[in-house]
Structures are given as structure tokens and as C-alpha cells.
Amino acid sequence: xxxxxxxxxxxxxxxxxxxxxxxxxxxxxxxxxxxxxxxxxxxxxxxxxxxxxxxxxxxxxxxxxxxxxxxxxxxxxxxxxxxxxxxxxxxxxxxxxxxxxxxxxxxxxxxxxxxxxxxxxxxxxxxxxxxxxxxxxxxxxxxxxxxxxxxxxxxxxxxxxxxxxxxxxxxxxxxxxxxxxxxxxxxxxxxxxxxxxxxxxxxxxxxxxxxxxxxxxxxxxxxxxxxxxxxxxxxxxxxxxxxxxxxxxxxxxxxxxxxxxxxxxxxxxxxxxxxxxxxxxxxxxxxxxxxxxxxxxxxxxxxxxxxxxxxxxxxxxxxxxxxxxxxxxxxxxxxxxxxxxxxxxxxxxxxxxxxxxxxxxxxxxxxxxxxxxxxxxxxxxxxxxxxxxxxxxxxxxxxxxxxxxxxxxxxxxxxxxxxxxxxxxxxxxxxxxxxxxxxxxxxxxxxxxxxxxxxxxxxxxxxxxxx
Length: 467
Hints:
Layout (H helix, E strand, L loop, with lengths): L1 H21 L1 E6 L14 E3 L2 E6 L9 E6 L6 E5 L13 E3 L2 E6 L9 E6 L6 E5 L13 E3 L2 E5 L10 E6 L6 E5 L13 E3 L2 E6 L9 E6 L6 E5 L13 E3 L2 E6 L9 E6 L6 E5 L13 E3 L2 E6 L9 E6 L5 E6 L13 E3 L2 E6 L9 E6 L6 H4 L7 E4 L6 E6 L7 E6 L5 E8 L4 E5 L6 E8 L5 E9 L2
Antiparallel strand pairs: 1-28, 2-3, 3-4, 4-5, 6-7, 7-8, 8-9, 10-11, 11-12, 12-13, 14-15, 15-16, 16-17, 18-19, 19-20, 20-21, 22-23, 23-24, 24-25, 26-27, 27-28, 29-30, 30-33, 31-32, 31-34, 34-35
């Protein structure tokens, strides 16, 4: 009888293992020729196509931009970097219409990185700016869009060699240095900026009061710098990724620090108050998270580059309250290891990349699915009392009617399913009607939100484009 029970347990365990592994699929094994070692980036998913970057490999060994189908087929090398046009494409891509925007940490005219744009079919490459040290150097993070301007940060360069915050028009003109980091106000930013109305919120990897990084905010004009939090070890150290925003709160991770010095997950009000340590990594449940979180409903998803069952990193989820925490998938080496980037959520599945592992040990592109994943479309309901949108669905030309007499200097933001901002209109006033044109975007679900001048939420909802 005992043997039967043990056999039954083994069968059930094997079945459970098979089901769990059935949720995970390697879509692409990097092999140096098609790219190698994706770093810091997150794949961009548009319809049935994935866009991404590899930091090295490709035709010249300097990295590449690629695309492939969400089923893993139809790989295309869209651009090979060759030092002259950039090198080491570590940052995530920004998709706007049929154009991709990105940065490289090295290469370009001065060897200090560049900002570029590229059509989604691989044509139309344009070098928008070459960093030269004075205007910044080595941007590890990508760019975010506000109106017709791109905003970003560099890890080095500027007068103090600690990096800068910058903006530039999407056509490559009008570059402005908005902030030169001096160490005291932060240094060596590795992530991207969060744009809330006319505010920029970001994190630096180092600097601040304790030299272990900070969270800051400033106006898009470059004025109004404010410390929101200085990391000091116990509350986290050395954040590499970005912040996300939901209902007045910011959520993020640090690579080190926390109770066990293995990194942590935290939340803080967008005003800089009410910091809370949600979770401290302890190697068993992950270690040294290097990317950013993704929010779906009330659940945060992310990856840790090390730790887990095989010490190859893992995918995890955690409620915004801090519990429960769940180890969703442990990387195994042969199917990928050391995820240095961020997940992308599309149609109930997550897509991501690992720096190492796979058949050739050069990293992989993967898909992870689970029926319990809530899509953001189900988590956002329109506030009809204040904002009315019509027609919806439509071909991309939406009419907005705002019903709030006291509304002044508000901001309308529109995001795709990946959480990337695709539209931003500032200085919106209340009690009138206006239209926006998103016809250049692909079919699908998008999310809008109106933010007051102080960053508080006025109304939000979803937009559906059907052409």
C-alpha cells in the first residue's frame, strides 16, 4: 500500500511539474549570430510581433535589434550595430506607431552612446543624437515619450561625470540637458523615467545622501528638483530599474540592500511619504533583482537575476499589499538563466529575455503563461461621472468630454498594454470636449488616465482601437 501511495505521489508530482513547465516556452535561443546577452531591456509586444535588442552578437558583435512572432517563428534581424551607428544596445525599445526608439550605451560618433530611431520593418535608421560626455554618456535606460519629446537619463557624463536627465524632440532636434547629477542629488541612473503629468520621477543607482541611490522628482522643464527617498541599505540599495505608478503609489525594486542585502520590493507615495518595504529577497525566493516590476490588477510581477531553486533566477508575483509572494517559475540554465531585464505582458502571457542560458548559453527569449494572470483591461473601469469617451471602440479617433468645472492644468496620458506611454497632452482644462488621434497605433486595448496638476487621479478607463 505504501508503495502504491508513493507511486501515486510520484505520478502526481510529475504531472504537476509537466503542467508548470508547460506554461514556460523558449521562443528563441540566442546564438551570437542572431544576437547575444540581452541586458536590461524588456521585449516590446505589438499584436503578434515581439521587438527586442541584444547587447552583443549580430553581424559585427556590437548587438542588434530584432523581431519575431509571439509563437517563436519568423525571426528578423532588423539592425546590426557596428560601433559607428551605436554599440551595446542594452536599453528597452519604445514603440510609437511604426517607429522604434532606443539608445545604445556605447558607439556612435564619440563612442559614448547614442539615441536612435528605426522603422519596425528595419528601414529608416536615424541617429538622433550622439552623446559626447558633456551632454551625457552611456545611457543604460531607454526613452519615454511626452508630447513630441523624448525624455531619458544617462549613467555617466555631464559636468560631474555622474549622468544627466535630458529631453529631445522625436526628430532629433531641440536637445536639452534638464539636470546634471552631482552625486549628492544622485548619480549613475540605469533605468527610465516615469512621467506623471508635468513631473518626471526617476531613480539613480548610486549617489544621494548615503551613496546608495535615491528617488527624485522634477518638472519636465528641468525645474523643481525634489528628493522623494534616499536609499540607505536597510530600505534598499542600488536600484537598477524603473518605477511604476498606481493609485498615488510608486512601486519599485532595489538590486541590493534590505534585511538580507539581497534586494527588496518597496512602495512609496508619489509625494515621497509612507515608504513601505513589501518584501526582502533571501536567495531562496530570489536575489539581486535587476529590472522593473509589471502591474496587473493588484498583482506585481517581476524577475530576480539569481536565487530560486537552481540559483539561475526566477519569475515571481506579489500582491501590492506585500502578501502573498509566489515563486512562479525557476530558470534552469538550459532554458535560460540570469534575467537582467523586465517582463512584458500581452494577452494574458508574459514575455521576457535572459542574459545567459539556453542551448548556446547566450540567453533566450521566452513566454510564460498562466490562467490566473489578470489583464490590465479587467482592472481599469472608466469613471463616467468625470470623463466620457466616444466612440469607443473606434479606428483611433476618440472624442473626450471632461465634466469637471474645477479642472485646471491636468494631463491626459494613454498607455499600451506594455505600460508604455504613447500619448500625452498637458494643460487640459475642465468641462469641454476635444479629440485625440491614435490611428497610427495597432488594433488593441489601450488605457487612459487623467491626472490633476498634483498627480492625483481624476479619471481613467480603456480605449479599444478596431480598424
